[in-house]
Design a protein that fits this description.
heterotetramer, A: about 300 residues, B: alpha/beta, 6 helices, binds flavin mononucleotide
């Protein structure tokens, strides 16, 4: 876009052309949105959460609208990591954007296998999802205690030949403790936040709206919680933080960068506005022009207290 | 990157059913019967878009019509739209009805708000015989009779309470229709229970059919995977996605709730 | 209002004429809103959070607007429990509504003293605030672990001659564990949720909007999280639960009752609409008429799964 | 329980300043100079009300005027309001300016959007001499000159860049004015730094003054305690609340930021 503006950032050795990534689970494997804009405009794409074997996911309804947000209970429906490697990476690699493989497991062994398999795939980084609230086993149960984090991250680290981003759940008492545990166990970067566990009820039918009863809250509603956690974590770890939660435009993204995020992800906003991802990139650029900043890295942690 | 379109006409068809005619070269030029649009309802407290079927396409006038019932916040806001207003509208989306020119005798069966996506099928289909079977709650709920009359060769209406047309459900109309005359293809849209019964009836007679499914949606384009719908997949089953794999599915692919 | 509708509920032996209470901190001591409607229309009032000595609270700005919500960092500004007893109870007692004294302390000893003092005052119940995110010492630090809860509740229980409602913070990994700890330690009822810890940043000035940097998130944005926690807790404790978080009207209140709350509190919504409290009462009544329910108690826990 | 009022007139006064005239018996009959209203801005993503001072009251026409600058989302939405629209509006709220009939010589000093609440003081005050000192950024920011002219006996305008009136700040105008002629009372509203300096100037001369404070608000009526403002309380200090104890305070009560 503009020549005198440097939008690139680096996360755990991966150079991103700009700090805006698509959040896992909201962007599929990119195919759908490639009809709306050039995927090369994005800093990166975190693909739909992958598991070792294909997963059917949870029964519908899987989405509920809430004030300035949504609840989802997809439950990691995905075609499995092997399908991804064979069928989706070749498509994504046609674009000049970082590919981040979002990986989940039911057991520590599964996490190990996922990381081993993905380490040999043509991707840029692995995002370990230790935070999905919509599946019974694994995932959030590993991510909601420091011991759980240490246990998984230390063990998968041995298999990791790609940068390891650990994605944190916000459903914890002390996010800083969890973040430090991940850092100490070998995470190369952190991403936060995943969704807040929530619920919606239809007073007319007297039933929960989601068949799964509870689901993960995302969208603008959670932005204040996300910003707070990103701020707290960025103050307390040395590894880079990828911030997300309710980002809908450039101003929101700038707030996360100021709070200490080195990059951001946009998720739910894109479900409503398919251009949210690229508008966020443009919005950051506009902010930089207005405020005479030539390098986006100057914004990172630039909060004035 | 422009999703904003102008409203040419906004009309109330019955106590809670509204029609909006939207000027859109983008949508009218590529849409087919059974596809839908995803609309940002202008107003506070409505976050997600609302999926609404395309009821009618006027390709020369470059407009599409949507017809909807006021159900909640979003559709209430939409009912306030006036001619000249603009709408933020994604589409056309999804997989529409299959129109097979070899079929000479087709039938559409719609219940309630399910009738709307069926109109364009009648308009676009080259069949000689086009039967339309429509079901409504009662007389005051009957809408678009003239349009369906115009584009069908045979129109039958049923109401739950018999206040208009025949008393009973569309399924009864369908049972009669297929026992008299075997259609080549049946297009169905309506409440899940009605679609399920119709599909069952037709299966017994081995008549192919397509159904248009509903599910709560996010993106509307296949990325977020929330709009799951149970479908047969060989001897197993899988979740397909209403917004991309559908909303129209072959009747025999759907696994209905009660199965 | 209508004769054939029974709106009354009982919380820990306190009969409420209807299940709608004003949430602490949003209703002052009732004086302001008494100019807008008859306070006797309310089931009860939880007054502004009290401490042993007067507190000045945090520096301004103390409020930020967020998507469908607000952040506040009032920090328990209040005239002290003695002032309350002398000057505010006589005013409130003119109305036929339950008075709930919301009490905080910096130390366990202060909590004990508060409960001792309030036990002799002319109030209906004590709401122990173990969840305020806006003060450095005490409060949330007691409320965010089961041990903290046990420690405070067990000790104050000895001094309690009034029903003891324990108010829980949502900023925890496992709300059920916390709730059970409170129940086991002698709580007569639970109220939840207090605010979620959040943050807002002004991209223009690059500063946090709140002088205190972080604050408590409330309003419709948090309703899904609140509903989920109330549902989880109500399934797992025997004592009554008072639900709150983003309730703005009768439908919202009905959702909380269905989820298992025996009564609800309305807070933030009233800051925007001063009639939110009484409209919520009316809204529940209308729902009951429409659905042919004559006793509001039938709604409690009436969720159909 | 009705807070809804009709807009009689909506007018743009300068590039970013708008006037709205609201028909309200409720508000106009009880409002006094310096009080404010709390307005629900009609539109998405604005949750809290917005506090705006009452600029002018017409008690016979039963209207009030508010004048505001577009600052963010809420005021942008308000700027779209048209005559005939309705607004959900709480008020009158707060403690206004003290009008002492014994005072014969008063002065109002306003900076930027701070000038608006001062107009009604001039209109209501029975003093013989009424000086108005107004500060603006530049010529194009100057608004309501005629109105202030009409209700004052002496009007002076300063602009930061000298493009209109005298070059400089209102504080300079005030310094001149009080050195020539000692007012009985001064009413001040503007940016915090301007108010602080004015109060300091006046304190030196022992001239009483009142200032109108701003703070982010919730309820607007004294219940939520968010709108804190540091005030003297004996030898100690306390947080008063702008919405109820103010927005107007005696100048000597406020502890300004830099103290
Ligand atoms: C492919 C498709 C085509 C449709 N075509 C039409 C049509 O032509 N005419 C018509 O009247 N209606 C149609 N519907 C149903 C229509 O989408 C819902 O009535 C509408 O979304 C309700 O929104 P609301 O805000 O008024 O209700 P609310 O209950 O307030 O909506 C809350 C949320 O639930 C979702 N939701 C509620 N009901 C439904 C539903 N039945 N199906 C899907 N999502 C729902 C909304 O989209 C929203 O996200 C269609 C639905 C789908 C999926
Ligand atoms: C007692 C009082 C009287 C006022 N009178 C006037 C007036 O007559 N004319 C006028 O133009 N402005 C006046 N203001 C300022 C006006 O309230 C703000 O400009 C307005 O709230 C900004 O809202 P926004 O949505 O456009 O901005 P945003 O920045 O989007 O608002 C976000 C939030 O911050 C609050 N906020 C932002 N700026 C201010 C501010 N300066 N003071 C208080 N809250 C703020 C908003 O109310 C809202 O809650 C007054 C403020 C107060 C407290
Ligand atoms: C429909 C949906 C599906 C999601 N699936 C995943 C997933 O598979 N893996 C994951 O790590 N996060 C998943 N998330 C969480 C998002 O990546 C993101 O952390 C969260 O939604 C907050 O960001 P947002 O508010 O911008 O959406 C999903 C979110 C949504 C809305
Ligand atoms: C301005 C403000 C002040 C509050 N002060 C208190 C308090 O003193 N004590 C307390 O227990 N909760 C306090 N709360 C929390 C509320 O009582 C309530 O738990 C929370 O706001 C969620 O409900 P709501 O979304 O309806 O506001 C306060 C909330 C707000 C918005
Ligand atoms: S709505 Fe997103 S996949 Fe169907
Ligand atoms: S805004 Fe609530 S006390 Fe002032």
């Amino acid at each position: 876009m503009s020549n005198n503006i440097n939008m690139s950032v680096e996360i755990a050795g991966v150079r991103l052309k700009n700090p805006v990534l698509a959040a896992s689970g909201t962007f599929g494997f990119g195919r759908e949105y490639s009809e709306y804009f050039d995927l090369s405009l994005l800093g990166g794409i975190s693909v739909k959460g992958l598991t070792l074997k294909p997963r059917k996911g949870n029964p519908p309804p899987r989405i509920a609208e809430t004030p300035s947000g949504i609840l989802n209970s997809v439950g990691l429906q995905n075609p499995g990591v092997h399908y991804f490697i064979e069928n989706e990476i070749p498509f994504l690699r046609k674009y000049d954007t970082a590919i981040i493989a979002n990986a989940s497991g039911n057991t520590v062994e599964e996490y190990e296998q996922m990381v081993e398999i993905l380490s040999d795939a043509d991707i840029d980084a692995i995002e370990l999802n230790l935070s999905c609230p919509n599946v019974k086993e694994g995932c959030m149960s590993f991510g909601s205690t420091a011991e759980g984090i240490v246990n998984v991250v230390k063990r998968v680290k041995k298999y990791a030949k790609k940068p390891l981003i650990v994605k944190l759940t916000p459903n914890v008492t002390d996010i800083v403790e969890i973040a430090k545990a991940a850092e100490d166990s070998g995470a190369d970067a952190l991403s936060l936040i995943n969704t807040l566990l929530g619920m919606a009820i239809d007073a007319k039918t007297r039933k929960p709206i989601l068949k799964n009863i509870t689901g993960g809250l995302s969208g603008p509603a959670i932005k204040p919680v996300a910003l707070r956690m990103v701020y707290q974590v960025a103050q307390n770890v040395k590894i880079p933080v990828i911030g997300m939660g309710g980002i809908s435009n450039g101003t929101d993204a700038v707030e996360f960068l100021l709070a200490g995020a080195s990059a951001v992800m946009v998720g739910t906003a894109g479900l409503v506005n398919p251009y949210a991802w690229i508008e966020t990139v443009k919005g950051i650029e506009e902010y930089m022009k207005e405020t005479n900043i030539s390098d986006v890295k100057e914004l990172i942690g630039g909060l004035i207290i | 990157m422009n999703l904003i379109e102008r409203v040419r006409k906004a009309e109330r068809l019955s106590s809670d059913i509204y029609l909006i005619r939207i000027e859109s070269e983008r949508i009218s030029s590529s849409a087919s019967a059974g596809q839908f649009v995803n609309i940002k309802c202008p107003g506070p407290e409505v976050y997600l878009r609302r999926p609404i079927s395309i009821c009618s396409i006027d390709r020369s006038e470059k407009t599409i019509d949507i017809v909807f019932q006021v159900r909640g916040k979003g559709t209430r806001l939409l009912s306030d739209i006036k001619a000249g207003d603009t709408l933020d509208i994604l589409g056309p989306l999804g997989r529409g009805f299959t129109i097979c020119p070899e079929h000479k005798n087709i039938l559409v069966a719609g219940g309630g708000i399910g009738i709307f996506p069926l109109l364009q099928v009648l308009k676009d289909h080259p069949a000689e015989r086009k039967t339309a079977l429509l079901g409504f709650r009662n007389k005051s709920a009957v809408v678009m009779e003239d349009e369906f009359n115009k584009y069908s060769t045979d129109l039958k209406i049923a109401t739950d309470d018999g206040s208009y047309g025949i008393q009973g459900f569309v399924t009864a109309l369908l049972q009669n229709a297929i026992s008299e005359d075997r259609p080549d293809m049946v297009y169905i849209c309506g409440p899940a229970i009605m679609m399920e019964q119709c599909v069952k009836l037709l299966k017994e007679k081995d008549i192919p059919c397509e159904v248009s499914m509903e599910q709560r949606m996010g993106c509307g384009m296949g990325a977020c995977l929330v709009c799951a719908c149970k479908t047969r997949s060989g001897s197993d089953w899988d979740y397909s996605h209403v917004c991309k794999d559908g909303p129209v599915f072959s009747g025999d692919r759907i696994i209905f709730e009660s199965e």
